[in-house]
Amino acid sequence: MxxxxxxxxxxxxxxxxxxxxxxxxxxxxGFTGGKREGKELLAERATVLSDLQEKLFAxxxxxxxxxxxxxxxxxxxxxxxxxxxxxIGSVDPQxxxxxxxxxxxxEELQHDFLWRIRKxxxxxxxxxVFDRSHYEDVLVVRVHELVPQREWEPRYDLINEFERExxxxxxxxxxxxxxxxxxxxxxxxxERLERPDKYWKFNPSDxxxxxxxxxxxxxxxxxLDRTNTDYAPxxxxxxxxxxxxxxxxxxxxxxxxxxxxxxWPPADFDVAEQLRxxxxx
Length: 281
Ligand code: ADP
Fold this sequence. Notes:
Layout: H1 9-12, H2 35-61, E1 67-74, H3 80-86, E2 96-100, H4 106-109, H5 115-118, E3 127-131, H6 140-143, H7 149-152, H8 155-168, E4 171-179, H9 182-194, H10 204-209, H11 213-226, E5 234-238, H12 242-259, H13 271-280
Parallel strand pairs: 1-3, 1-4, 2-3, 4-5
The protein binds adenosine-5'-diphosphate.
């Protein structure tokens, strides 16, 4: 087990029917160290992640069909962007396919809700990152009744079917739901309003959404109950401590990539012969 972990992130964070409203968002499940240890360890583990990602990329380049999909969900300020910058940012960008999903365009709205998602699934050998995802269609859509219940209700089953198909096609899916407390969100929003370098991240609707916190918690609880499958597991991430979220997601990715059991592709040329040619050149 990695240093300072009493229990691996994959088991400590796996959704297990817990109530979202009861989650201690400042906790650091499984981790025995503090911020300093967490930051030091992140630097070490980023190297491990990067090596594993290179193996996945090499696998894709040589005809392999596996890929990884990291789905990030969370309320505004939960730290999805930080995961992308600090975790995904530590691997080779050519092996990463980042997709963010905002309010659907008129064209997207003409299709079923999975249409735009399918188009962004990672290619062989890639780590795909969904910054928001098809789960918005049972979160914001449900909370604000953007479509009637008879339309969003079947989506949980449709999502499970979709994810099963994606997983059977060789994509390892990891879903992370990030939670900050209402107070921590207020602090982070205040920072966006007090720092000119953060204004660009601020959206006045983020404040209006705070009034819907209980409805969002309920919607999260339902999706965690109904879409937490063996082939596409949910991890519930307390996200008040950014250093912890980043470290934990790094561990989840390391675990997933290790689970793919990839080897470096063998040479498709005669190594000795090429060395001899090189010497003679
Ligand atoms: P962020 O807030 O993550 O920086 P954007 O401002 O681009 O990103 O857009 C995110 C917004 O889009 C969120 O408010 C989110 O709820 C909304 N959104 C995402 N998917 C959908 C959807 N399917 N239907 C309606 N709104 C959506």
